[in-house]
Amino acid sequence: MSKSLNSPTVTGVGDAATVAAATEVLQGASQKNRLARILPFIGPAFIASIAYMDPGNYATNISAGAQYGYLLLWVIFASNLMAMLIQSLSAKLGIATGQNLAEICRQEFPRPVVWGMWVLMEIMAMATDLAEFLGAALGLYLLFRIPLFPAALITAVATFVILSLERRGFRHLEAVITSFVGVIAVSYIIETILDKPDWGQLAFHAVVPQFAGPESVLLATGILGATVMPHVIFLHSALTQGRIVTRDPKQLKRLFRFQLVDVGVAMGTAGFVNAAMLIMAASTFYRAGISDIGSIEQAYRTLEPLLGAAASVVFAISLLASGLSSSTVGTMAGQVIMQGFLHRKISLWLRRLVTILPTLVIIGMGLDPTRTLVISQVVLSFALPFAIIPLVMFTRRRDLMGVLTNHRVTTIVASIIASLIIALNLYLLYQTLFGS
Question: Which is deepest, 4, 29, 316, 340, by most CB within 10 Å?
Answer without folding.
Answer: 340
